[in-house]
Amino acid sequence: MEKQYDVYGIGSALMDFLIEADEELLQQFNLKKGNMHLIDEQQSIDFMKRIKEYNMKIAPGGSSANTLAGISLLGGKVVFCGKVGDDEHGYLYEKKTCNNDNTKSNIAKGSCITGHTITFITPDSERTFATHLGAAMELSKEDLFEEDIKLSKILHVEGYQLEDPNLKSTTLHAMNIAKANGTKVSIDLADPGLVERNKEDLKKIVVDYADIVFANEEEAKAFTGLEPEEALKSISDMTEIAIVKLGKLGSWIKRGQEKAFVDAYKVDAIDTTGAGDMFAAGFLYGLCNEMDLEKSGKIGSYIASKVVSQIGARLDEISKEELDKL
Fold it and tell me: Are 102 and 70 in contact, with CB atoms under 8 Å apart?
């Protein structure tokens, strides 16, 4: 089957509320720095009341959606599948996410409010998340554009879709469609806490479905119990391509006997939100254009460096000169 799209992505469609905060505020909210915390609607309302005096940036987010935004910015064709509320934030989310000819919307409307994440950025550029999933939790098999999965080179999913039973069932259904139609499956492990809670289940899913696995150092250790290079080998034994990201120290990539190390581009990091998502964007874009592991990794590393140099998880633009250089 001839593929019309580079990547079909499934993920939580979340509005991001980004604030710069000190660690004392995290302690007041009982949040563990660097982790993602699920909160209910009432907690979200309470949090928003307490941070209203802070300067806040509002932007569409969600790991998979961020990755697809990066691929489309580079020129790749993508389809994003998620669910938002029938409300102001839902309409804004779809408008800002599917704002170019490279991005097709598979965004459905749910009965709950649009999900959102309050992202606390501490002075060390670390980010901590308080997330109310809202309508994102309602995504079902009926919401999938199954034909578009078949017509995509890669199906990319975030680990957050593999914990809740309903979301996991929907995502596994998409993976089965992908495997039956020659569409590669890419999984971003997403969060060390999520990995620790679901380790054995995630390992089975990786072995049964994954062709590409992204993990940062903490996620890789939670998944394998090993340090980065040993974790890379362990994950590569389960899948075709394994990537272990070390932040400013670079990234390891392995496929069979082929192994590459990609340096990070040196920049003054302001906000690390979206760095891993942008790395995945560049890497998947490279793969879809038949580049080798090192070249794909370098593109990922470069656009990750661009996103950490600003506040927010997505790049608004990249110059023609930079694209030509890449």
Answer: no
Q: Are 92 and 15 in contact (CB under 8 A)?
A: yes
Q: Kindly report the CA angle at 181 between 101 and 297, in degrees rounded to 5?
A: 60
Provide CB contacts within 8 A for 210, sequence distance 6+. 185, 186, 187, 238, 239, 240
In a domain, 44, yes or no: no
Domain count of the fold of the chain: 1
Is 134 inside a domain boundary? no
Distances in Å between the alpha carbon of 153 and those of 126, 148, 156, 166, 223? 33, 10, 10, 25, 26
Write out the two tokens for 320.
Answer: 């023609």
Each residue's pLDDT tens digit, 143-193: 999 999 999 999 999 999 999 999 999 999 999 999 999 999 999 999 898
Are the CB atoms for 315 and 303 separated by under 8 Å? yes
Six-digit token string for 88: 């102001």
pTM of model > 0.85: yes
The pLDDT tens digits for 21-71 are: 898 999 989 999 988 898 998 998 899 888 888 888 888 989 999 999 999
CATH of the domain at 313: 3.40.1190.20
